[in-house]
Every structure is written in structure tokens, then in C-alpha cells.
Design brief:
With about 160 residues, the chain is mostly helical. It has a domain of about 90 residues: WPP domain (Serum Albumin, Chain A, Domain 1, Orthogonal Bundle). It is built from 5 helices and 2 strands. The protein has a two-stranded antiparallel sheet with strand order 1-2. Helix 2 packs across helix 4 and helix 4 packs across helix 5.
Length: about 160
């Protein structure tokens, strides 16, 4: 019984210490926000994007991988665009940054998937053209893939 009483006293003292610390923080009006992320966090996000785009992953099983140099450039652009989109998003003023961080995360995911899908579609179209024996030539441009017929005619 003495051990139970001692454990109970220790628990009560720990709870009181926690309550005291909470009260002190409340009195200091300390708040925190997770938005905007630090440059170190943004760099870590870019590094993660590069790894996802250029190494074996669930994404690469379906859409392939990018060369590291291309992955770096694409990741840089994706993160910058996602950051700008999230910063421009309207969120409640009393938000501690969680909602805007969700916007940022969704923007990054959307951009990564859209890029890989468009790249995969371009690759599939080019390989179909090559399998056709060169009846059409595909060229990649800024606005997507464009086809042009060759002067060759089939009978």
C-alpha cells in the first residue's frame, strides 16, 4: 500500500507540474504557426520530390523515372508553384497554418502526378509513332505533343 500511495503522490505532482507549465504558456500568449515553412523545410520538400521523380518508387512503376538533372529542375518548379498557390489561397485568419499546409501538400502532389502523366502520355505517343514505322512524327513542345504527317503515303 505504501508503494501505491507513493506512486499516486508522484502522479499528482507530475500533473500539477504539467498544469503549471500550461498555465504559464497561456499567460505568455505564445502561439505558433507552421506556415510559411522555413527555407530548410522547402529544400527538404524539393529533395523528396527529386527522389520520388528520379528513383524507383510507386510513382515510377507506373510512369517511369526522370534523369536526376531533369528531376531537380522539375522539383524546383513544382515546389515554387505550389508555394505560390498555397500562399495565395484564402484561409481563415485564425488558422495556425494547417489548412494552408494542406493546400501546399495537395498542390505538390497534383503537380507531380500531372507532370508524370503528361510525360508518360508523350512517351506512349512517341512509342506508338515509332511502332507505326514512322508514318507520323511526334515532337514535344511547350504546349504538349504535336503530330505532323510525313510526305510518305501508304497504299
Amino acid at each position: 500500500m505504501a508503494a501505491d500511495s507513493e506512486n499516486s503522490s508522484t502522479l499528482i505532482m507530475e500533473n500539477q507540474a504539467a498544469d503549471d507549465a500550461t498555465n504559464k504558456l497561456d499567460q505568455m500568449n505564445i502561439s505558433f504557426s507552421i506556415w510559411p515553412p522555413t527555407q530548410r523545410t522547402r529544400d527538404a520538400v524539393k529533395k523528396g520530390l527529386v527522389e520520388s521523380l528520379s528513383t524507383a518508387s510507386i510513382l515510377s512503376k507506373r510512369y517511369g523515372t526522370l534523369p536526376t538533372e531533369e528531376a531537380i529542375a522539375v522539383a524546383e518548379r513544382m515546389e515554387d508553384e505550389a508555394y505560390a498557390a498555397a500562399s495565395a489561397a484564402s484561409v481563415p485568419a485564425d488558422d495556425d497554418g494547417i489548412e494552408i499546409l494542406q493546400v501546399y501538400s495537395k498542390e505538390i502532389s497534383k503537380r507531380m502526378l500531372d507532370y508524370m502523366k503528361s510525360r508518360s502520355a508523350s512517351s506512349a505517343e512517341v512509342s506508338t509513332v515509332e511502332e507505326d514505322g514512322g508514318a507520323t512524327a511526334a515532337t514535344a513542345g511547350d504546349s504538349g505533343v504535336h503530330e505532323s504527317s510525313t510526305s510518305e503515303t501508304r497504299s
